[in-house]
Design brief:
This protein has 68 residues and is α+β, with helices and mostly antiparallel strands. Helix content is 37%, strand content 24%. The radius of gyration is 13 Å and the shape is globular. It has one domain (2-64).
Length: 68
C-alpha cells in the first residue's frame, strides 16, 4: 500500500492515515477506514514523508512505537 504524503491539507492526510467516523442523523454512521487499519499488520510505503506536516509525522511515530 502506498500513501502519497504530498497532500498539503492536514485534515485530508489525517483522515487518510487514521480514518474518520461521524454520525449522520438520517443515515446512521459514516465510517472511513484509514490506511493504517487497512494495512492490518502489513507494510505501508510513505512517499515524500518529509513534506507532511510535523504533527502528522509525530502521530505516525507514536503509532509506530506500539506493538500489535
Amino acid at each position: 500500500m502506498v500513501v502519497d504524503c504530498k497532500n498539503p491539507d492536514l485534515n485530508d492526510l489525517e483522515i487518510e492515515f487514521f480514518g474518520h467516523e461521524k454520525n449522520k442523523t438520517n443515515y446512521g454512521k459514516v465510517q472511513v477506514i484509514g490506511k493504517l487499519e487497512q494495512a492490518n499488520g502489513g507494510s505501508i510505503l510513505l512517499d515524500e514523508i518529509g513534506s507532511t506536516p510535523n504533527i502528522i509525522q509525530a502521530r505516525l511515530l507514536k503509532v509506530g512505537s506500539y506493538r500489535f
